[in-house]
Amino acid sequence: MTNFVYLSKERIRELEKDLAEMKTNGRKVMAERIAEARSHGDLSENAEYDAAKEEQGLLELRISKLEELLSRASVIDLSGMPKDQAHILSTLTVKNLNNSKTYKYTLVSPEEADIDKGKISITSPVGQSLMATKAGQEVQAKVPAGVIKFKILSIE
Fold it and tell me: What is the chain's Cα-based Rg?
């Protein structure tokens, strides 16, 4: 059973670029490192060779996982989404009523989440509480540290 992964066009492009880089330059660098380590003699006692082979295996695993993710990727179509209600790829300006700070969050799929960039997963407690909300609404998110109360200031 394949589950679709909804990603923005930009994120799909980023992942495709990363995959191409790993397949070309990443594999080339690994082959060079293995050849260099192999040239140092006895492979049974060559820690550098073992490390290079281990790194190569990890690179191939990352390539495989990225290929699998991209094979399930589907671009998010926002044409039918309501403009006044929060949904995936909406950017919300919210006020945390617990600490009176204002934050800007974009609701994204778990694969795109990056809190440092203000991208929060729709499956996270905060993301779930913000989904389907409207400007002016107050919501609560139950997080490990307790309950956070938010007021939705605007939705883009």
Answer: 22
CA-wise closest residue to 130 among 86, 82, 78? 86
Does any domain span residue 44? yes
Cα 3 to chain centroid distance, Å, stands at 16
Residues 106 and 68 in one domain: no
Residue showing tokens 């080339």: 28
* Res. 1 pLDDT band, cuts 50 70 90: very low
DSSP three-state, residue 10: helix
23-61 residue pLDDT tens: 999 999 999 999 988 888 777 778 888 899 999 999 999
β-partners of residue 17 are none
Q: Which two tokens mark 19?
A: 């995959």
